[in-house]
Write a sequence for this structure.
């Protein structure tokens, strides 16, 4: 075991900014569940781990690689949370720029600017066994500290790709044979429960705004979650949950298929 | 227009506590969307409204009853939020203790202790046209300030009833002919998409804990949301969304029925 070097201390701070993550191509993964997920899914990415005695003990015997032991007080100085769990990993951000998407659909987030929402959506997508999450520049960085904490490290099981616009995202998807873009719309569209094509080599777009996605490209189809209460639409995380579980409903054993 | 009396000022403060709400049988409804909902759904409950010039203007010409105009600074003193919208209503808490439940199922919350989650779930239930929300003592007070803000005032369209235990809740439901209790369980149970009886004069229980509801009464049935990713369960608000939208799926025009 070692203590933190000066370089590592300054890196921990820099990784709280987008610029710092870009320069180092690393991210911070803080908290017990997120670190556990990273250790289980992508230990190869880890540069070093930091924790207190308490944090180390909470891992239940798992030996984190390149571990630096620090005091509770020292940990508080670089923790991003008020009640920290005393465990954190620093790792490289994986690059899936050239990886062809797998599965029945690409899940796309457009303008999801809240890291808590982005994290929750990532967790749900991970929980249903999804892989490819593509997003546009208006969304927050999935490798930010808060997004990783909210996502409980689901990021390390997913393949993220970033695009300047929904149009360039759609073009890239087409080049892999994912030809139809469905955009969740709070006001109008085909009913998500009835649309047979929804998961047939498609792109499913969830927008972060009350009005749905920013500017759906020409030829895209709108899909709506019906709300009989005539009241208001679901937020982005809830809308994502409904559509992702509709996929589960169709593809599970005994389901009606995609 | 008047300014706030001393009694009203002290009531605004007292209503932030459960004891204060119990003594006065009133609640605070703060923020533009929540106040709009209260004005539209239950103006009869309103005791008085308070706002700044800006807050009043944001109502777009709607005249709030018994309005007290205050300065931005004065509003900040009793607002429960950092960036307040300058509009608030105080109203009586409606009592549905003797009202028979309507609809196909009673929606029950057991131990949902987070006001944000409780509020979000209330909004979703309101959005699908639901009415009866029953809850147990381990849950937070739906008439608390934060629950009303998170619910955007959905409370004023719902009928809440509080029970000491899930057992007493189930007994009361039975007396109205709602005989079967379904408890959402993160680990095991009948699959929510396949269970034909789910909305046939039933009670649907969502628990706030990771292990689901506290102590399901004898004879209750467990229902699970399938998660193929073998990862973790959805949080209470997401689980509620999936099950409520499954109800919409079955009962909409062209659905398969309850």
């Amino acid at each position: 075991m070692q203590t933190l070097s000066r370089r590592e201390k300054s890196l921990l701070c820099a990784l709280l900014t987008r610029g710092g993550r870009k320069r180092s191509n690393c991210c911070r993964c803080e908290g017990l569940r997120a670190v556990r997920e990273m250790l289980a899914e992508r230990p190869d990415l880890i540069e070093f781990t930091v924790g207190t005695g308490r944090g180390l003990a909470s891992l239940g015997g798992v030996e984190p690689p390149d571990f630096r032991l620090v005091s509770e007080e020292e940990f508080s100085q670089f923790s991003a949370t008020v009640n920290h769990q005393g465990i954190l990993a620093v790792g490289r951000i994986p690059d899936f720029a050239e990886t062809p998407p797998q599965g029945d659909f690409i899940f796309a987030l457009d303008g999801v600017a809240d890291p808590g929402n982005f994290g929750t959506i990532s967790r749900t997508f991970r929980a249903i066994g999804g892989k490819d999450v593509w997003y546009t520049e208006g969304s927050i960085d999935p490798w930010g500290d808060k997004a990783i904490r909210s996502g409980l490290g689901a990021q390390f099981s997913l393949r993220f790709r970033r695009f300047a616009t929904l149009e360039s995202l759609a073009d890239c998807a087409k080049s892999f044979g994912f030809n139809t873009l469905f955009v969740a719309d709070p006001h109008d569209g085909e009913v998500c429960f009835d649309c047979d094509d929804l998961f047939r080599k498609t792109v499913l777009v969830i927008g972060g705004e009350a009005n749905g996605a920013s500017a759906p490209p020409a030829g895209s189809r709108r899909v709506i979650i019906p709300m009989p209460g005539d009241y208001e639409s679901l937020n982005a995380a809830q809308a994502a949950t409904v559509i992702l579980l509709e996929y589960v409903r169709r593809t599970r054993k005994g389901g009606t298929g995609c």
